[in-house]
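go over this:
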Amino acid sequence: MSTDSTTQQTDSIAQLQSAVRTFAEARDWQPFHTPKNLAMALAVEAAELMEHFQWATAEQSEQPDAAKRAEIGAEMSDVLIYLIRMADVMGIDLLVAAQHKLLHNARKYPVEQARGNAKKYTQLQPDEPA
């Protein structure tokens, strides 16, 4: 019985990235896993995830039944796997990139201006001086 990356326990992004890489390499998919193709596949999977919420009310989207929740989880996994694979192919450390993005967003969305609203950062007004 062969061991496949799909049976490996993954407890970190690095382990998941390794498992996804092993999975792709075993199938010789590297020629197809270009950044362009992976970005397109990621967008397709994100659209498939969105389909589960199309026409649903806010309340329905917050409380899917067990079967729908499982389907949503499968689509979320597809999105994650393609994102992980794309980061691997491009040599991007997703944890570092996400930490940088959170710092950037903290500057764009200061708590005192952004709390409790959904305005884009370009619509936020700095506090008036006292």
User: Anything to note?
Assistant: The helical segments are 13-26, 35-51, 58-62, 66-90, 94-108, 111-114.
